[in-house]
């Protein structure tokens, strides 16, 4: 098909924005997004259980002694390995998931994720020694690798163009709900004496694991996946059902054409690095690197410990973590409303300013009022620091958090979409692992300067996105090349 013909077909499809948001789309999207719930719970629960003394006594008995420096009192390579081992397994699993997602469909990868989550949850809840605990975390990491690879792609492909951003953000919304759920569970189980507290916390991950497994068995696969795998008529019928209209010919022909192009891609991972695909790869990878260098996971992983370092006592660390979790959820809801109205770029740039100011203010307060002992902060200043942390979390939650998953899932062509999402997840996990492993030593050595460290990165990433990120709002997912990349002042020289 010629370039002119391609553009005409895409224009017809792009004009078909009255496709209904059907019950099957809503149901499938919410069910698939439970993969985010599972991932979020495991992110949030680890930061709470390592705060529980029975857990430390059983698995890390050498970590009971506190460092004399408030910033360094929680530095522990063992605890960091427990938290971050999930991401090591996830990095390996997501590469395998690329093959599974392309050859067997999005549902299959989601089902594998659910089963791995169930196995990891069961083993972690009954763990008797550190090797059992780490193996459980590795199984959970494999589940996260499959789930995070398949779910965002599923959501992007099943959604109508005009609501694709909001639909995809359901994944991140569930991540934030999972984190909040974990913090609430940890707050309750921390009062249980003995081993039952942390075991209940880890075992409750079975709830989202069951939901994801059931979802994978119930939902239909996406038309994009069915057509890509040669099930043309089945894909057309599913497309008709999820769009709620018989006027699907333009979109159907786009998918058939995308399949023809995809069939020419023998090696998806290698194809990602050819010249015309480099802009997509650079944006997807940059989003993941920058997302971690906002410092968000450093705060969310260790929120209880962070607030304890700031001088809160007894239940206040977990209570404060619950507050930040609630802010995270509410702010993600704002993103669902705004992403398909103001666009991806505007949310990222506004949040960059807000995050930068929050981090700088926190650093200045700690520098002036608590050089070596943040626990010496007055109650009023400590509360103000928590407010600034919440301000930071809110801006991340309506920008870099959800859009780090939304944009990569919608910019790759069909033939390299699974591979592109795997590279996205791999990059996310390797940098999440790096931040998880390095945050406590950085906190110990940089002290208040850690917030300045992340603020510099926020400034860099905001300038990067200002210049290089194209707007993808309201552009059909199979028509990104003509409508986005060939129109961008920098990237068009690579694509044309």
From TrEMBL:
Annotated keywords: Membrane, Sugar transport, Symport, Transmembrane, Transmembrane helix, Transport
Taxonomic classification: Eukaryota, Viridiplantae, Streptophyta, Embryophyta, Tracheophyta
TM ranges: 21-41, 77-99, 111-128, 134-155, 167-188, 200-220, 281-306, 318-339, 346-368, 380-407, 419-436, 448-469
Cellular location(s): Membrane
Name of the protein in its database record: Major facilitator superfamily (MFS) profile domain-containing protein
Domain of life: Eukaryota
Family: Belongs to the major facilitator superfamily. Sugar transporter (TC 2.A.1.1) family.
One cellular component term from this protein's GO annotations in UniProt: membrane
Bilayer topology: Multi-pass membrane protein
Main location: membrane
Presence of the UniProt keyword Transmembrane helix in the record: yes
Organism name: Acacia crassicarpa
Annotated ranges, domain Major facilitator superfamily (MFS) profile: 28-473
């Amino acid at each position: 098909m010629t370039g002119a013909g391609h553009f005409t077909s895409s224009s017809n499809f792009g004009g078909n924005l009255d496709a209904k948001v059907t019950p099957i789309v809503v149901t499938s999207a919410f069910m698939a997004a439970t993969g985010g719930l599972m991932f979020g719970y495991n992110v949030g629960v680890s930061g709470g259980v390592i705060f529980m003394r029975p857990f430390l006594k059983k698995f890390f008995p050498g970590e009971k002694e506190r460092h004399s420096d408030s910033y360094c009192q929680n530095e522990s390579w063992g605890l960091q390995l427990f938290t971050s081992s999930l991401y090591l397994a996830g990095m390996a699993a997501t590469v395998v998931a690329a093959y599974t997602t392309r050859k067997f469909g999005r549902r299959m990868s989601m089902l594998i994720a659910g089963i791995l989550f169930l196995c990891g949850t069961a083993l972690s809840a009954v763990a008797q020694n550190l090797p059992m605990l780490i193996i459980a975390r590795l199984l959970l990491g494999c589940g996260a690798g499959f789930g995070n690879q398949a779910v965002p792609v599923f959501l992007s492909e099943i959604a109508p163009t005009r609501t694709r951003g909001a639909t995809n953000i359901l994944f991140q919304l569930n991540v934030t709900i999972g984190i909040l759920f974990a913090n609430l569970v940890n707050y309750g189980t921390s009062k249980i004496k003995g081993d039952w507290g942390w075991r209940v916390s880890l075992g409750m991950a079975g709830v989202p694991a069951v939901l994801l497994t059931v979802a994978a068995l119930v939902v239909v696969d996406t038309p994009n996946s069915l057509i890509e795998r040669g099930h043309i008529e089945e894909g057309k019928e599913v497309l008709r059902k999820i769009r709620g209209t018989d006027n699907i010919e333009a979109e159907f022909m786009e998918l058939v054409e995308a399949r023809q192009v995809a069939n020419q891609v023998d090696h998806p991972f290698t194809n990602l690095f050819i010249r015309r695909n480099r802009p997509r790869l650079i944006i997807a990878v940059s989003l993941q690197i920058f997302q971690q260098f906002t410092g968000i996971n450093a705060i969310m992983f260790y929120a209880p410990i962070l607030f304890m370092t700031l001088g809160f006592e007894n239940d206040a660390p977990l209570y404060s973590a619950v507050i930040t979790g609630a802010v995270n959820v509410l702010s993600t809801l704002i993103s669902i409303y705004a992403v398909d109205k103001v666009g991806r770029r505007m949310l990222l740039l506004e949040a960059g300013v807000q995050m930068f100011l929050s981090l700088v203010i926190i650093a200045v307060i700690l520098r002036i009022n608590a050089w070596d002992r943040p626990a010496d902060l007055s109650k009023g200043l400590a509360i103000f620091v928590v407010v600034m942390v919440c301000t930071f979390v809110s801006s991340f939650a309506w920008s870099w958090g959800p859009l780090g998953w939304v944009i990569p899932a919608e910019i790759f062509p069909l033939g390299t979409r699974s591979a592109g999402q795997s590279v996205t997840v791999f990059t996310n996990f390797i940098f999440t692992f790096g931040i998880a492993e390095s945050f406590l030593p950085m906190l110990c050595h940089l002290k208040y300067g850690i917030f300045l460290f992340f603020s510099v990165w926020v400034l860099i990433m905001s300038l990067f996105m200002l210049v290089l990120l194209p707007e993808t709002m309201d552009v059909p997912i199979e028509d990104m090349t003509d409508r986005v990349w060939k129109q961008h002042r920098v990237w068009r020289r690579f694509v044309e």
